[in-house]
Amino acid sequence: MEANTTTNKTLRPCIEESKDWDNTENLYIEGDNLEVLKLLQNSYFNKVKMIYIDPPYNTGNDFIYIDDFAQNIDEYEEAKGSFDEEGNRLFKNTDTNGRFHSDWCSMIYPRLVLARNLLANDGVIFISIDEKEFSNLKLIADEIFGNNNYRNQLLVRRRIKSLNFQFAENGLKSFNVGFEYILVYAKSDKSIFRALRMKKENLSDKGSWNVFWSNADRPSMRYEILGFKPDKGQWRWKKELADKAVKNYKIFEENFSDKMTLEEYWAKNDKNLRFVRRIADGKGKNGGVQYWVAPNDTSLRTSNWTDIEVSQIAKDFESLFNNPKNKDLIKTIIETIYDKNAIILDFFSGSATTAHAVMQLNAEDGGKRKFIMVQLPEKTDEKSEAFKAGYKNICEIGKERIRRAGEKIKEEAGLNGQDLDIGFRVLKLDSSNMKDIYYSADEYDQGMLENMQSNTKEDRTDLDLLFGCLVDWGLELDKPYTIKKINGHKVHIYNEGDLVACFEKDLDMKTIDEIAKLQALRVVFSDNSFVDSATKINVAEHFKMIAPDTDIKVI
User: Fold this and answer.
1) Does the pLDDT value for residue 358 go beyond 90?
2) 66 vs 516, which has greater pLDDT?
3) Hey, is 485 helix, strand or coil?
4) CA distances for 98 relative to 64, 293, 362, 383, angstroms
5) Among the ranges given (73-77, 130-134, 140-144, 530-534), the one the predictor scored with the smallest mean pLDDT
6) Which residues contact 224 (CB under 8 A, 6 or more apart)?
7) Which residues contact 537 (CB under 8 A, 6 or more apart)?
8) Is residue 2 within 8 Å of residue 34, measured between CB atoms?
9) What are the residues facing 119 on neighbouring strands?
10) CA of 305: how far to CAs of 43, 60, 141, 332, 338, in Å?
11) Rounded-to-integer distance, Cα 178 and Cα 160, Å
């Protein structure tokens, strides 16, 4: 129910806190992620290829969101001290709370419902969690994404704390925790991961011979090799490959075996040859037929990721944030996604490690991935290094990290980093751009309506209204736009005509004609753009003649 409840909030652009506003395709959104996820539903429905989140683990010290409550704010604040002076829905869920697990589940559930809507049909979500809420999260995710779309639980190494050492001699109530989980769910069976490889331990420079026969039963894959044909099972490769591999080995045996090893011969031929042989008097199901396995310093990565640490101890800007997520961990997660133009979403952004990882990977492989970071501007502890350094909330830390990390990545990339997008548009969650009368005009008498100059709030700019329209109309928020003067009036043209907006007063018909000739998909005017209701009706009829395919909206 909470996920399906509409919101009357909007997103307001903040150019002064952004970087490369006009050209970037990355977004940094400040505000309660539940409200933000609702606002993103139309613009990014089925478009996000990968989501990574690191929600609060509910350790008893974490702050979590409260989305619904029976008491009013004053009562609840008195009972739990949960709201700040701005009414942020945030409280410290201590383990003495009788609804300790229930409150956490109620927080995470609607956010995952909305997140699933945003995922592309072949999209995936990765969720970090520890053992305290693992079982609850697994049940919730099974219900939302479907148990059939559960893919893996990854194990990631956690730095071991020494708290238990002092009690070891007297016995322990529990063992030190050495790892955390990352739950992996797909949107559908269309989701396919790129196979990742990892460095092997105890490397060998020698190849090995393995049985060429397999227990799978495909009659079409049973054929004669070196005088032997199996009665059941199958060979590992199709006949053309096997025949070529037999020939390769014969060439080596007859011409090179007295001069070099098979490994040396393979390396000399660009490591692209296969070999098949048969042991003399070979018996058994495979008749002694073998294929050569080349030396390899890597193996396929499994769900055991304990070679990667969860947190990162950094000596650069990141150290201002306690226990930032390991950039290499998230970069490895992103590498599992084939699409190098993917939209990557993190709605518990924290110190913006995910944004850092996206930019780093783009620099390394030439990708054009885009990020959307969402974070509530939680206040930093006054005793923290971040607060002392002038960062009053987590969002300020995250934005500054992206700025610094992006510049460093671009500098290290050199010429290869010229097209690298290291900017971001900052958008901030706020109340609606519209006055209350816009939503409930029937409650006001006609005299009040005639004296009302505009439906929009006085403190809102044209850019606020433009982005409010983008949210309402479901357009992506990262596209370019221009401002054009038409007969002295300012006209916003978004993404080459996906939307055209003019919020100026008392537009003349000549200007309206010129706007109609732009043949935009959508056009938005302010209610006070027209002298009276009759003019508004005439404009609608005018558009039907000049631009019949244009949708018109008046706010």
Assistant:
1) yes
2) 516
3) strand
4) 15, 59, 46, 30
5) 73-77
6) none
7) none
8) yes
9) 48
10) 34, 27, 21, 10, 20
11) 6
pLDDT digits (tens, 9 = 90+) for 452-490: 457 889 899 999 999 999 999 999 999 999 999 999 999
Name the β-bridge partners of 553.
524
Q: Find tokens 């098949």 and name the residue.
A: 276
pTM beyond 0.85: the answer is no
Residue 378, phi then psi, degrees to nearest 5: -65, 140
Residue 498 · residue 479 · CB < 8 Å: yes
Rg of the Cα atoms in the chain: 31
Q: Is the dihedral of CA 350, 352, 353, 357 positive or negative?
A: positive
Q: What SS3 string covers 237-283?
A: CCHHHHHHHHHHHHHHHHHCCCCCCHHHHHHHCCCCCCCEEECCCCC
From residue 469, give the alpha-carbon distance in Å to each of 437, 475, 502, 515, 520: 18, 8, 11, 17, 14
Beta-bridge mates of residue 85? none
Q: Where are the beta strands (DSSP E) in 456-521?
A: 481-486, 489-494, 499-502
Task: Report the C-alpha gap between 174 and 130 in whole angstroms.
Answer: 15
DSSP structure class, residue 377: -
Looking at the chain, how many residues does it have?
A: 555
Residue entry with tokens 């018109």: 552
3-class DSSP state for residue 510? helix
Do 525 and 462 meet the contact criterion of CB atoms below 8 Å apart?
no
User: Which of 2, 154, 145 lies closest to 68 in space, CA to CA?
Assistant: 2
- How far from chain centre, in Å, is Cα 351? 15
Of the chain, the end-to-end C-alpha distance in Å amounts to 29
